[in-house]
Prior knowledge:
Structural class: alpha/beta
Bound molecules: adenosine-5'-triphosphate, magnesium ion
CATH class of the largest domain: Mainly Alpha
CATH superfamily of the largest domain: ABC transporter type 1, transmembrane domain
Largest sheet: 6 strands, mixed
Amino acid sequence: MYIWPAMKSLRYLNKFIFKYKFKMFWGVVFIALSNWLSIFPAQIFRNVLDAILESVDLINLFKGSSSEDIVKNLFISSAIWFAVGLFAFAIARGIFVFFMRQTIIMVSRYIEYDLKNEIYAQYQRLDISFYKNNNTGDIMNRISEDVSNVRMYLGPAIMYFINIVILFILVVITMLNINVELSMYVLLPLPVLTILVYLVSRKMTKLSGEVQDQLSTIYNTTQESFAGIRVIKAYTKEKSTVKHFNEEAELYKEKALKLAMADSMFNPLIFLLPVFSTILTVFVGGMEVIKGNITYGNIAEFVIYINLLTWPVASLGWITSLTQKAIASQKRINQFLNEVPKIQNNSSEPFHMEGSIEFRNVSFTYPESGIKALQNVSFIVPNKTSLAIMGKTGAGKSTIAQLLTRMYDPDSGEILIDGKNIKNINLHDLRKQTGIVPQEVFLFSDTIEGNIAFGSFSGGELSSAEKELVKKAAEEADIHNNIMSFPNQYETIVGERGITLSGGQKQRVSIARGLLKDPKILIFDDCLSAVDTETEEKILNNLKNATAGKSTVIISHRVSSVKNCKQIIVLDHGVIVERGNHEELMKHKGFYFELYEQQLSEDEK
Ligand SMILES: Nc1ncnc2c1ncn2[C@@H]1O[C@H](COP(=O)(O)OP(=O)(O)OP(=O)(O)O)[C@@H](O)[C@H]1O
Ligand SMILES: [Mg+2]
């Protein structure tokens, strides 16, 4: 068991244990008290047994004489004392066991809570590239599976370990005091029990890990089929989806059965081994009684001690395997907590944005895919003006938006806002004052109002002034009328638990969210793609007022969306190939001109 060197990964938990040191201390005291009390019944039992044997001798001696009743009564009264004593100790011990669990197990729950919060805060701190490099299941495991393994160590493992140590010391001292030779024989089989239980637990841990993995595969398969149910039905793939699920479930069943098998072997093992100790007690103990070294009662007392020790000694193997699991989990947690976000906030100074943007020779390659998304891109957006970005799909348009909000940092070149490199701008203020309406709309399982207000107000119930602002933003995004036609209007729940909005409705809720935030720089990433040209026109008109006094970046595939922008750039494979305003680009007769001609004729059709 190479457990000790590996224990150092658990050192991280010391700070939590220290935090709850008083509770822990009392926990240990209660463990000691409850164990101490568990020794006494065995001694009472020995005394009673010896008393019975003596009484039997006495009764036989006084048979028929007048004293027979006195002797019988003596016996009965000592039996009553035995009952009362046993009962009292059981109750007292029960009380201490209750407090032991109430302290140690509670501490483990407190630490679990602290650790989960710490991990969740780290989730939020880490940047986009971390999420691109790790899959959801793995990330989820840190906060669920791994924390629960660590809790099992902090609670049950530590509690039973201290329990065993104290009990062992108490019982062994008591046994040695009675008879050294007998104690040695009786204790001999116990280490074998520990090792066997450890081996079985280790096997079970491995199997239960496999069961867990298969379970998460099933979970992922199921979840994906729910998310993609429309595609599955449209392509009539229900049958093969069911077949696929069956295969995964079959695998799960096989693994679970193996685990059940190992589990079934566990208990018989624990019942079997103490039998050796008991047999040895009777044999060796009998000899000692004959020699006159101990009494009959001592044999009974020893049998009780063996039973007292069996479970704890067996659980030592279980504790070892729990601890190993916790070590592996805590190692992963430590690694995760030590993960440093690539995007660092380099300034704590407050930053008040005006809104001018400059890209200076910016090049960027996605680290995950090695795709060169931008090459030597330079442009200037003066304060309170608009920039349009056009270009074929995959040209690098959204990448510009990502870099501007510092989801990634460029490989070379500089991005400046108000003449200051964004790397040196307080990250919180940068993101607070830039608004992005992303290409892929995401709505939370919340009310429409909550979704629009997301990121603008600090949460909780909105004031009536805030509600008014939400409504205004919804009007500007031309979604207010739609919302009013829903049964619960602004209180309508959307997302997974609620009603399904159409693609265009979602985009407009998302636009309203961006407008409400009222940032200095507003980026619209292809967010009118799902609305018809008439609605688009309406929204663009509204936006003119809403975005007055802001710098705007409009990414679009439609000439109609961008033709009024002060400056238009066309990207191709990450390179700017055309730039100018509408008239200039029309004269240039390049990509923009062709797109215009094509879309004009489509509209005329
Ligand atoms: N997170 C990412 N990781 C790796 N590669 C990416 C990532 N996002 C985009 N890319 C790649 O970078 C290139 C530019 O992508 P980008 O999203 O900027 O294109 P786009 O111009 O916005 O396209 P579209 O008009 O389809 O939205 C593409 O080749 C794309 O595959
Ligand atoms: Mg895009």
